[in-house]
Amino acid sequence: MSERNTIGIGVIGLGHWGPHHVRVFSHVRGAEVVAAADPSADRRRHLENLYRGLTLVADPMDVLNRPDVDAVVIATPARTHFELAAAAFEAGKHVLLEKPIAIDVAAAERVVRAAQESGRVLAVAEEYRLSPLVRAAHRAIKEGLLGRVTLVQVSAAGPHRPPQD
């Protein structure tokens, strides 16, 4: 946490999940979304209309180099996760990485190693396991309310399209 008594948040990637992170962190006490990056001018313009005062840039390094950014959310295609996370750790930032952590186990291990070497926090987004519906289903299974469960298959449905990588 900086001297501001708030955690400065940067968001990299404004495709599917990035705008959700901007929205959620905008309502978290003690956090302030200060900058976001995406190469798409249309995506930046969309956020500009929703969040006045948010600095929007094309280059992720413009977010990572800001002294008022303490932590970044990386919500880009998985093939870019290692490179961006490594750059964030090198810049001294904590990282919340959208899932999947990487495109393969070797790349995931490199991300974890980069976090360990930097002494910064690495977290991977896994919001569904915390949803009230998933928690209720888990509790019902644990308590035996559904009998003997041998397979659980879940499909997400809603107004949002799945991310395209």
Report on this model:
By secondary structure, the protein is an alpha/beta fold. It has a single domain (7-128), classed as Rossmann fold (3-Layer(aba) Sandwich), CATH 3.40.50. It contains 6 helices and 6 strands. It has helices at 18-26, 41-50, 60-64, 81-90, 105-118, 132-142; strands at residues 7-12, 31-37, 55-57, 71-74, 94-97, 122-124. A 6-stranded parallel sheet has the order 3-2-1-4-5-6, sandwiched between helices. Helix 4 (81-90) runs parallel beside helix 5 (105-118). It is globular and about 55 Å long. The mean pLDDT is 88.
How do the strands and helices of this protein lay out in sequence?
Layout: E1 7-12, H1 18-26, E2 31-37, H2 41-50, E3 55-57, H3 60-64, E4 71-74, H4 81-90, E5 94-97, H5 105-118, E6 122-124, H6 132-142
Parallel strand pairs: 1-2, 1-4, 2-3, 4-5, 5-6
Helix pairs in contact: 4-5
State the strand order across the main sheet.
3-2-1-4-5-6
Distance between the termini: 33 Å
In terms of quaternary structure, the protein is: single chain
Poorly predicted runs of 5 or more residues: none
Give the proportion of residues in helices.
25-40%
| Protein structure class | alpha/beta
Q: Total number of helical segments?
A: 6
Please tell me how large the radius of gyration is. Answer: 18 Å
Architecture (CATH level 2) name: 3-Layer(aba) Sandwich
Sheet-strand content, in percent, reads 15-25%
How many extended strands?
6
Apparent shape: globular
| Chain-averaged pLDDT | 88
Order of helices and strands: EHEHEHEHEHEH
CATH topology: Rossmann fold
Total tally of structural domains: 1
Under the CATH scheme, which class?
A: Alpha Beta
* Major sheet details: 6 strands, parallel
Find the CATH superfamily. Answer: NAD(P)-binding Rossmann-like Domain
